[in-house]
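Objective 1b: paired records.
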Amino acid sequence: MAASSSPAALLAPPAGEPALRIMPMPADLNPSGDVFGGWVMSMVDIAAALPAIRRARSHVVTMAVNSFVFKQPVSVGDLVSFHADVVHVGNSSIAVDVHVFAERNPAAPVVVKVTEARMTYVAVDRDGRKRAVGPAAVLPPGGLQSPSDKELVLRVMPMPADLNPSGDVFGGWIMSMVDIAGAVPAIALARSKVATVAVDSFVFKQPVSVGDIVSFHAEIVRVGRTSITVEVEVFAERHPENPVVVKVTEARLTYVAVDEFRTKRTIAAA
C-alpha cells in the first residue's frame, strides 16, 4: 500500500552513495533555459525504482506519485544527485523517498536541494503480474558496492534508446558518460570549465545492458600547469534477483582548464 505522508525535509545530502548521479545536457533544457521539469521527474522515477527493485528482487512498476516538490531550478552543468530510500513495504508495494541535490558553480562550489518526492511501486513478475514482496536480500556489510577506491562521480541507468543494433548498450554512450565522469573531478580541481584534449586509453571489458545500474568512479592521477589527467573505472550492477557487480570499462582521459573565452588557463594551486 502507498504511504501517505510527505517526505521529511533534508537540508543537506544524506550520507551514503546516491541512487543516481548525473549531469544534464543542453538537450534537457526547456524554452526558459532551465532543465525541463519532466527530465527531473523521469530521473526521480528511475532513482526511486532502484532501491525498490533491490528490495523486491524483481521488476517493479510505478503505481503512484505521492508527492513531488520542485524547490529550485536545475541548470546545465549542475551535478545532480538523487538519494533514494525505501520508507514502506507492503504486501506487493514499496514506497520510496527521493531527495535531489545539485552541485553547481565550480569557482565557488555550493550544493542546493532542488527536488523532493515520494513514489510508490508494485513488484511484478516476468509476465507483468503483481507479486508479493519477499524477504530482503542478505547483502555484505555496507551493501552491494562497486569494488573501487575512486570517487563515485556518476551513476546512471541506460535506456533502450541507448542500444546498438546488437542489443547491447552502444559503446559511444559509455564513452560519452566516461568523458563526463572524468570531467567532474577535473572541473572541481580546476574550479573552472575544462575541455577534453586526449583519450589516453579506453578498454571495454564487458558489454552493458539495459537495466544495468552503471557507476562511474574517477580519480585524478596527474596535474600539469593547465592539464588534468583522470582515470575512470566503470562498474555495472545487474540481475536484481541475485545482484552482482562487474567491471565493464576502464579509461584514462586528459583535460585542459579553460576560461570563459575557451582559452587555456593555468590551474591554481590547491
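Objective 1b, second protein:
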Amino acid sequence: MKKTILVLGLVSFLAFPVSAATPFDGKLVALDAGHGNGETGAIGYCDGVPVVEVELNLAVRTELEKFLPLGTYHDVLQSSSRQERVADAEAAGATVLISIHHNGSSNTGADYTQSFVTQKNDKTFAGYIHPLIVGALRLPDRGIKSDGYGMTVYGSLPGVLTESYFVTDTDGACDFIAYQGGATNTRVHKEAQAMYDGLAAYFSAGTGGGKGRNR
C-alpha cells in the first residue's frame, strides 16, 4: 500500500509541473493605441455606420493583451504628443513599443499592410512583426518604410508603427462591425495573434530590446 501511494503521488506531481519560462520573462511591451485624447484618426463606413480608427486601435490592443502574460504589457498614455507617449513607455521600463494604427483613404477600395520605423533597431524589431501581420491578413505588402514623423523618432526604444489595413476600406470597416457583434476570426483577432507571435519570436531570438525592467 505504501508503494502505491508513493507512485500516485509522483504521478500527481508530474501532472502539475512548475510553470515553464516564456520569451516574455523580464520583458515589458509598451502598447500604444494610436490617436485618442480627442483624435479620432481615420473614419470608415460599413453600410452607413461609421467605424472610427481609434476604436479599432483600442480593440486590437485589447485582443493582443489577452495573449500576453500578466505583467508583461503597458498601456501607453493617450496624448496628443507622440514624444510624451514614447516618454511614458520609457518611464515604464518598456523593452519594445508597438504603436497600433490603421490607415485611411478617400478610396474605399484601397487596402494594404505597411509599417514604419526610424532607427536601425526599429527595423530589426519590425522585421519580426510586419511579415506576420502580412501573412495573417493576406493583404498587399507595402513593406517597412523609414519614417521621420511617427512614434519611432523619439527615444532609443525599439519600436514599430503598424498600419495593418485601411479602416476606410469597406471590407475592413464591416469586419470591425462584425467583431463588435461578437464574430470570431476577424481581422482584429488575426492582427493581434500576428503581433503576439512576432513578439514571441523576437524575444526568443535573443534580440533583446530596450532596458526593460529589472527582475
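Confidence is low (pLDDT under 50) at residues 1-18, 211-215. The helical segments are 2-15, 53-67, 82-91, 120-137, 170-180, 187-204.
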